Amino acid sequence: MSLDVAEFHAEVYTIVRLIPPCRVTSYGHIAKLAGMPNHSRHVGQALKFLPANTTPLIPWYRVIGASGTISSRGPGTDGARRQRNALVAEGVDVTDGRTGDFRIDLRTYGWFPTRDEVRAMQQIEAEDV
DNA sequence: ACACTGACGTTAA
DNA sequence: GTTAACGCCAGTG
């Protein structure tokens, strides 16, 4: 069974929507929750593919690297800075590293549920509607 | 087929 | 605490 890219992206989006406010998780953890533990890079690819304004809103800015740093989009881009602003606006404490990188304390803000917990959350979402 | 890239992760030093 | 070297895998040229 081959994996459809669109299907993977959709799976990523449904999981990212479940991240609570003021919490962050990593690309790799999203990949695990989607059942693709070695596709962390493609989680980033899925988020990059995301349009600016989505309905429902997908909190892409709550996804950071496993080391607790906001991934750089390369020099000359402002994506990382916008991500930091979005997190700060939510009340997340973002510290500025020496080399201009942005760090978040995962022990405080990290959100790393199991697949079962995510399934339970999806069940609750379905009931709420 | 080949080399290189990327919003990544783990490990070693 | 840090950086460097791999491993990873779908796209791209």
From TrEMBL:
Superkingdom per UniProt: Eukaryota
Keyword DNA damage found: yes
Location of the Methylated-DNA-[protein]-cysteine S-methyltransferase DNA binding domain: 7-92
Annotated GO biological process: DNA repair
Matching InterPro entries: ATL_DNA_repair, MethylDNA_cys_MeTrfase_DNA-bd, MethylDNA_cys_MeTrfase_DNAb, WH-like_DNA-bd_sf
MF terms (GO), sorted A to Z: catalytic activity
CDD domains (alphabetical): ATase
Pfam families the UniProt entry points to: DNA_binding_1
Alphabetized UniProt keyword annotations: DNA damage
Protein name: MGMT family protein
Organism this protein belongs to: Crepidotus variabilis
Taxonomic placement: Eukaryota, Fungi, Dikarya, Basidiomycota, Agaricomycotina
